Amino acid sequence: MIFQKWCPGSNCTAPTLSFVYVQMLDSWGDGWSGNTIGLKQNGNITATFGAGFTNGHAYGPVQLNISYGIQAQIIVNTLGSWTSEVGFIIRD
Fold this sequence. Notes:
Order of helices and strands: EEEEEE
Strand content: over 45%
Shape: elongated
Strand order of the largest sheet: 4-1-6
Oligomer: single chain
């Protein structure tokens, strides 16, 4: 995915940084069991999430900073257990 801002006029300056919100989910209710996800831009992991989610069915939203106009990848940062129970939603 690439985050971009629509700018209707020629004198509009789009920001270079912004943020998205991540809501983490767990179907069993015991948190993410050591799983963490990373946001990767320009070959570098710029943010991670999931380490703090240790209990419950939902956690967040957590704010992640992103750079506009640069491709972003969502990657598995740490593979924990019970991966079939975890999920997340990203919103801007």
